[in-house]
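Exercise: predict the structure of this protein bound to zinc ion.
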Amino acid sequence: MKDVFILGIETSCDETAASIVKNGRQILSNVINSQVAIHQQFGGVVPEVASRKHIENIAVVVNTAFLEAGLSHEEIDAVAVTTMPGLVGALLVGLSFAKAFAYGLNRPLIAVNHLQGHIYANFLEHGNIEFPAVCLVVSGGHTSLLYMKGISDYELIGSTKDDAAGEAFDKVARFLGLGYPGGPAIQKAADQGQAGLYHLPRVFLDRNDFEFSFSGLKTAAMNLWRKMEKSGNNRVEDLAAEFQAALVEVLVEKTIRAANKYGVENILLAGGVAANRDLRTRLGESARQRQLNLYFPSLLLCTDNAAMIAGKAYHDYVNGHFAPLNTNAQPSLFSL
Ligand code: KG4
Ligand code: ZN
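Solution:
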C-alpha cells in the first residue's frame, strides 16, 4: 500500500495543535501552540478566550506543521480533527478549519474522539502493543478504565463518579494558590514535601469495582489545608505530597486489579495525568512485581497534541471511516 500522510488538527481545550503523521506511526511534525500563559492569569481555561485564540492561531499552526514536515498541502491524503469531547467553541474552530481544508483539497475528513487519540499516543510511541490490554485514561476531563481487545474495540469497565483526576489536581492546586495547570504544580510542590505526615482518604479503594471518586478527596485536602493554616502550619508541600499519593494509590491499585481480573499482560496509561511522575513510577513498579508490562507515552505525547489525532485517524482511513462535511462538534459526549 502507498504511504498515507494525514494532517491532524486538535483544538479541544487550550492547545492549538497540528501534526502530520505518516502511516499512523511516523511523526513528521508536531506543532503545539499552548495558551497556558494566557489562562494562567485566570486560574483556569476561559472557554471564550480559548476559542478566540484558536481562531488567531490555527492557520499559522497548520502551515508550520506543513513546513516542518516538508510537505505541500496536496501531498496529504486526509484531514483528521478532534470532534469530541471538549469545549464546544474551541472544538468548532478546529472542525470548521479542517472541513474547509479537506473540502478545498478534495480530501476526506476524519472525525477523531480526543480520548481515543490519547490512547493512541501509546501506539505512536511503542508501535504494536499486544491485545488484550487494560488502559487507564486520566485527563483533565476524564478518568476511565478500559478493557481493550483492539485499537477501536474496547469496553468501559469503570470511570469517575464525579471529578476527573486532572480536574482534582487543578482544583486543589488553585485552592492552594499553586497555579495552573494544577497537575505539574502539585507534582513540583510534592517533590519538596513528604506524604504520610497527614492522612487523606483513598476513596473507593475498598470497593470491589473499577469506579473512581475524587471530589471527596479534593474537599478533604481543602479542609485539611484550612486546619493546617489555622494552626500556623503552611507546609503546602506536605499536603501536596499526601494529596498526590492518595490519588495515585487509588489509580494504581484499581488498574492492577483490573489487569488481574481481565487476565491481561499489558497495561496502557493515557491522558494528561499520565505525565505525572509518581503515577508512572508507582504503576510501573506494581506492574513489574506482577510481571505485567506498562506502556505510557513520552511527556510531549501525554498532554494534548495533534499527532495522536493524526495517528488514530490512520486506522479510520484504512477502514474507510470518513466523516461527512456536516459533522458537528460534540462537547460533552463520552463515547469511549
Ligand atoms: O489530556 P490533557 O492535556 O487535557 C485534557 O484532555 O483534559 O490533560 C490535562 C490535565 C490537567 O488537569 C493537568 O493538570 C493534568 O492533565 N496534568 C498532570 C500533569 N501534567 C498534566 N497531572 C498530574 N501530574 C502532571 N505532571
Ligand atoms: Zn487531552
